[in-house]
Amino acid sequence: MTLAERLNHIIKEQNITKRDFAKRLGVSENYIYILTGNLNKQQNISPSLAKLIALEFGYDENWVLNGDG
To answer: 39 φ, ψ to 5°?
Structure first.
């Protein structure tokens, strides 16, 4: 599962918009659209953003970052 697929999964499971997802993380909506739109291209995020996503939405940090866990 790519990062885009994992982020889209979180957004769907949380039943929120990409705008709300971006707001809760303090990043731009455009950045989230870039990360979630490239389903076939491997994107990377910083470990600190992965940690924030994990804490904010209740997911395993390693799963958010690299799909493990």
So the answer is: -65, -25
Farthest-apart Cα atoms in the chain, separation: 28
Give the pTM.
Answer: 0.90
CATH number for region 3-66: 1.10.260.40
pLDDT at 43: 75
- Strand ranges in the chain using DSSP code E only, listed in sequence order: none
Question: Domain limits of the chain?
Answer: 3-66
Residue 50 Cα distances to 33, 55, 56, angstroms = 16, 9, 10
- What does the pLDDT look like over 19-37, one tens digit per residue? 999 999 999 999 999 999 8
Q: What is the pLDDT of residue 40?
A: 64
- Please give the single-letter amino acid code of residue 52: L
